[in-house]
What does this fold into?
Amino acid sequence: MYKIKKNDDVAVMKGKDRGKRGKVLEYLAESAQVVVEGVNKKKKHMRQTKQDQKGGIIEVEKPMSCANVLVVCKNCNRPVKVGFSVLKDGSKTRICKRCKEAI
It folds into this structure.
């Protein structure tokens, strides 16, 4: 079980986009990176193709390290560290380390 999952709200803690918040679009487990909506945008030069695609410069979100983001707790509405808890039925769930509620 990973601490960060797709569709989590995260806050960027390091880098040029520090302070921004966004939703996780993709989690890349093998490289421990996340793609966050509206964060770490890079310009990509696209060539025009025959399939009605316009050429030009577009902005694309690029992956960034998981170490640079923290999950935003829905109860606290603050960036928090994530812990794990085992429920009575034996399933494992993610919890907020600040308020001890499930994320």
In short: DSSP finds no helices and ten strands in the chain. The beta strands are 9-12, 21-28, 33-36, 41-46, 56-61, 64-65, 69-72, 79-80, 82-86, 92-96.
